[in-house]
Design goal:
alpha+beta, five-stranded antiparallel beta sheet, 2 helices
């Protein structure tokens, strides 16, 4: 499952980051690293971007970048 597949209000944990080079580095620079928990807050009306909370701050991530972030659901 990727971050793009997560539902609004769902908390997920990062399992793996796909991609290489500058793209992967940019995702990691935003604070999205393996083991990090992410809360999906909102999705824009046309579906892009997705607003998430990671490391106690809000972040908007494009769908293309969300597809590179492999996640698993976190049980409450």
């Amino acid at each position: 499952m990727t971050l793009r597949d997560a539902q609004i209000g769902q908390t997920v944990q990062v399992v793996k980051l796909k991609g290489t080079g500058p793209v992967k580095r940019r995702i990691m620079d935003m604070g999205i690293t393996k083991g990090q928990k992410i809360l999906v807050r909102k999705v824009a009306p046309l579906g892009d971007p997705i607003e998430v909370t990671v490391r106690n701050y809000e972040l908007s991530v494009r769908k293309a970048d969300c597809e590179m972030i492999e996640v698993e659901p976190v049980e409450a």
